[in-house]
Design goal:
Layout lengths: L8 E5 L2 E5 L6 H6 L3 H32 L4 H27 L9 H19 L10 H29 L4 H32 L3 H26 L9 E2 L9 H6 L1 H31 L4 H17 L1 H11 L1 H17 L10 H37 L4 H29 L15 H25 L7 H9 L4
Antiparallel strand pairs: 1-2, 2-3
């Protein structure tokens, strides 16, 4: 199959004619490459969704059960249903943004509208007006949860698609995504440290959660809208009008994009491992290290700070080794460093905990960076093969895989602990768990994440979009 590159008019691909609009590229941006302002501005959008995502993951389940009095099983089912809903809305949002024609571009209008929805979703989740009776609590939560899922999708899918819209080189994509990974870390810190402090400072209880949600919602709005204004001059590639009859998903073309399918499998395994690690961390601190929330905060903060600080290191490594080998190196280091937690127990020195947290944070940074940087490459490959710009559709599928993988990881943690005899309802009391449950906690923190990461690294062994292949596509020399 050949894809003929033209300035405008049409592209013939697989027997289908596709209308091509001239590229809307800011020439100054193309000459100077990615400016620091563009990278920071685009990355700020990730801070917004990371605040939203991590605040809800950290606090929502406890708020629903402990302060609204909803049964834990009902609350868990509600959150699980929202993930099923995401599996439909994420690809749909990508499909819609691919076909949007607006003066502001295909993606940027959704940054304004989606950012506003994201900001509003936090008060909807954490503030229950007094006039809502107990009979309507669950129904209100159903609406709020699905509103949150919709808001996240409306912003995140078009936003993430912008990275694939930009006509960037192989290593430029990695550089842009390094700002996204750093922004994820900043959002995690704000959600993990600032949000609980706000709840406490506003008096705790339901009132504290409500006040926190308005403050954090304002931060989300600021970050999301900053990304809109900062990307006004962002370069973008040619826009394509899909051929008549092309549906929501052209499954044959998706099947032909084997690099994307491989990336989905890799990302799913990686994030299941990360979710198992995150879901078991609090249990490990309490029952493994027999420490309090201060130790948990120290581990969380250290890993996040190191993740942000070491982005330039991993960028340099990827330039030398290539993206695939860099991911595999990071996965190998992550697996080895995770095993060090098997040596930690009650009375483990704080200094060693900090060092071990820093090591795992360093390794996870490389995996996160490359996992993000490979997505635009696979979309560029699809564009080359099909002649179509379907960034939104692929990004929607990628976003769905991320959410489902995280949900699976948390479920795996619960199933492993339950099978090992973990006793619920013990609060912060140490020494009440059977030895089998403690061993299961160690397996979740030190063994399972590493094994899943190694599996993800092995899956990349057959990935063929090397720097040479991508440069051939960018220069028109790749058939």
């Amino acid at each position: 199959m050949l894809v003929y590159r033209v300035r405008a008019e049409t592209v013939i691909s697989d027997g289908r004619a596709v209308a091509i609009q001239p590229a809307t590229v800011d020439r100054g941006s193309r000459r100077s490459g990615l400016s620091l302002g563009l990278c920071l501005g685009w990355g700020s959008g990730t801070i917004g969704v990371a605040i939203l995502f991590n605040t809800t993951n950290l606090l929502l389940l406890r708020f629903i059960t402990d302060f609204l009095g909803v049964a834990a099983g009902v609350a868990g089912l509600l959150l699980a249903l929202s993930k099923v809903y995401d599996a439909v809305t994420d690809p749909l949002m990508g499909y819609l943004s691919d076909r949007t024609r607006a003066r502001l571009g295909r993606r940027r209008p959704y940054l304004i509208f989606g950012g506003l929805l994201c900001a509003a979703s936090l008060p909807m989740l954490f503030w229950l007006p007094a006039w809502i009776t107990d009979d309507w609590k669950v129904a209100t939560l159903v609406f709020a949860t699905f509103f949150y899922s919709t808001a996240y999708t409306v912003f995140n899918v078009p936003y993430l698609s912008m990275a694939s819209d930009m006509p960037l080189g192989y290593h430029q994509r990695s550089r842009l995504m390094s700002f996204r990974v750093s922004a994820i870390g900043i959002g995690q810190l704000l959600a993990g440290v600032l949000a609980p402090l706000l709840v406490a400072s506003f008096g705790g209880g339901a009132e504290g959660f409500a006040a926190m949600s308005f403050v954090m919602g304002l931060l989300v709005l600021t970050a999301c809208w900053t990304s809109f204004f900062a990307t006004a001059e962002a370069p973008s590639g040619p826009e394509t009008t899909p051929a008549p009859g092309q549906g929501l998903m052209d499954w044959q073309l998706l099947k032909d994009n084997q690099p994307f399918v491989q990336l989905l499998l890799v990302k799913t395994l990686q994030l299941i491992g990360f979710a198992v690690l995150q879901g078991s961390l609090a249990f490990f601190v309490l029952h493994g290290l027999q420490a309090g929330t201060g130790m948990l905060a120290a581990i969380f903060t250290t890993k996040t700070v190191v993740l942000i600080a070491t982005m330039p290191v991993w960028l340099k490594i990827s330039r030398v080794l290539g993206k695939v080998r860099t991911f595999q190196l990071a996965a190998l280091l992550f697996s080895a460093f995770s095993l060090l937690w098997l040596l930690a127990g009650p009375g483990h020195p704080l200094a060693l905990v900090i060092v071990q947290s820093a090591l795992t944070g360093f390794a996870s940074a490389g995996m996160l960076l490359i996992g993000q940087a490979l997505l635009p490459d696979t979309i560029a490959w699809d564009r080359h093969r099909s002649g179509l710009n379907r960034e939104g559709t692929f990004t929607g599928l990628y976003s769905t895989a991320e959410k489902i993988a995280f949900a699976i990881g948390l479920a795996v943690t619960g199933l492993v602990l339950g099978a090992a005899g973990y006793i619920e309802g013990q609060g912060d009391i140490v020494g009440t768990q059977p030895e089998t449950a403690v061993r299961a906690i160690y397996a979740c923190i030190a063994v399972l994440p590493g094994l899943l990461s190694l599996g993800a690294a092995l899956m990349l062994q057959r990935y063929r979009l090397s720097e040479e292949v991508m440069q051939g596509i960018e220069t028109g020399k790749q058939p």
